[in-house]
Amino acid sequence: MKHKKLRKWMLFTTLLIIVILVNLPIIMVILNSLKPTSEILSSKSLLPKQPSLDNFIYLNSRAKFWMYFKNSIIVALIGTSASIILAAFAGYALSRYRSVFIKLYSNSLLMLQMFPVILVLIPLFIMFRKLDLINTYFAVCILYITANLPFAIWMYKGFFDAIPKDLEEAAWIDGCTKSQSFVRIILPISGPGIAAVAIFSFLFSWNEYLIANVFLRKNELMTIPVGIQMFMQQYATDWGSLSAAATLALLPTFVIFLFVQKYMIHGAVAGSVKG
Amino acid sequence: MGPTTKRRFELLPVYYLLPSLFLVLLINFYPFVSGLLYSLSDGSLIQQGTFVGIVNYLRLFTMPDFIHSLYFSAIFAFFSVIGSYVIGLGLAVLLNKDIPGRGFFRVALLVPWIVPSIVSIISWRWMLGAQEGLVNTFLVWLGFKPILFLANEQWAIFTVCLIKIWRSFPFMMISCLAGLQSIDQSLYESASMDGAGRWQSFVHITLPQLKSITVVCWILMTIWSFNDFDTIWLLTQGGPANATENLIILAYKYTFTKNDVGTGSAMAIVVLIILMTLATLFLRNQNKSQD
């Protein structure tokens, strides 16, 4: 018995060390954001000697960073809300109906996962340039919505598959139409599923770099990843400000993640394994 | 069967599918077709070119930078898939045991997967870059010479693979963990009654039971590593001296800096062909072994 307990705690310690090592880059970026650049470059110590918020204050004085932050929020919110609504309907159709067309549609969604983004990016860049849509949120949002769709639809399908059909059938007998039963009964009880899809869409849009980099070339429209990358090119050695910017970029990710990690793990597994 | 049981064609699913179908056609299908056409012409970003047939494709194979990026893409994908799978499976096995704080560990180990690429790359660049970086300080302290992780060609290839593995293993981990949790425990009990050791049950029960999840994960990971842009671009921009240019970076450079849309599109199509071939091979192999 005692032997077993010892083994348990040895495993615990091993995992703790692994977690710290694996997360070292993230821990370091947060610690570095509290040090002046000179200390980041010279000091052998990992912990800040005198933690200070100077980097954040400096970043705050450069209003641009908050502009990037605002742009990221706008793009991510639009991308997320549109894709969770569109995908819900499609996922429901895939879950409840069978036909050749639906089969074809769901298979082509899987195929889309294989497409290199760059392949569609080139023609879209040319098309959007003609339509004068480069440097608009619209260009980026519509791409994010579409990029989120395949995964979101498959996740929804998994969640809806798990809801018994009896619920709807009972509602039909009570006089509900089919679309009413979906909106009033199925959607409200799939809260956790919707949350999972929303988190994935939000994280994707928040983290995305390539699409934003191609379509948002004006400084006042850039999202955080593109903005920080610009900053990195200009002030490559200003590690203090860079770390502070990176730390702030992490905030929404961590907030969402800590709140709803349960759904997320479940959702990721449902999406990947069933898909 | 009477006529009443015959299925009526329903319009509702069509309405439900239409909005997303419209977007997919507009943002994926239409550009795919025109991308295919671009790859057969000699246009630029501003000017529509003329039809040249498969000339762009034929020329690809005479270009040293294309051949190199083909080779690098393959290495990058191979090590990313194998590395992240071995680490992910190992951690999944550990996390599947009864240990205190399991929920915390599971979440903490997902972090590299969910943080924005730009954030992790900034940190990795500081940790590995130049002489004053954390890793080099540590190496010097141990008595080694500092390594130019991003400036030396061989080391840069090693470094981008390592960081891709770091960014990808959490996905493998949670997928394997889900697979492990669905294995019937009685299989292990009967195996241990037959005198099988821990390693034997791992090889003869765990691995075969995980096979279908493994294949899906390998396919997805292969696709994601072939299509990777962020990790490499933010870390090295394909350098030093093109050493870490994969096909996507090369296609990006040809299109957006050299303004050669035909070549760039042809490269992207080559990636698609490679991925479809690999996915078919993986799936066929899986179906064969299941029969």
Textual characterization of the structure:
The complex is a heterodimer of chains A (275) and B (291). Chain A is mostly helical. Chain A has one domain: Orthogonal Bundle (MetI-like fold), CATH 1.10.3720. Helix content of chain A is 80%, strand content 0%. Chain A is built from 14 helices and no strands. In chain A, helix 5 (64-96) crosses helix 11. Mean pLDDT of chain A is 86; it is low at 271-275. Chain B is an all-alpha fold and 291 residues long. Chain B has one domain (66-290): MetI-like fold (Orthogonal Bundle), CATH 1.10.3720. In chain B, 73% of the residues lie in helices and 0% in strands. Chain B is globular, with a radius of gyration of 24 Å. Residues 1-6 of chain B have low confidence and may be disordered. The interface between A and B is large, with 89 and 85 residues.
Structural class of chain B: mainly alpha
CATH class of chain B: Mainly Alpha
Give, in order, the helices and strands of chain A: HHHHHHHHHHHHHH
- What is the rounded Rg of chain B? 24 Å
* CATH architecture annotation name of chain B: Orthogonal Bundle
Biggest sheet record of chain A: none
Structural class by SSE content of chain A: mainly alpha
CATH topology of chain B: MetI-like fold
CATH superfamily of chain A: MetI-like
The count of β-strands of chain B is 0
Low-confidence stretches of chain A: 271-275
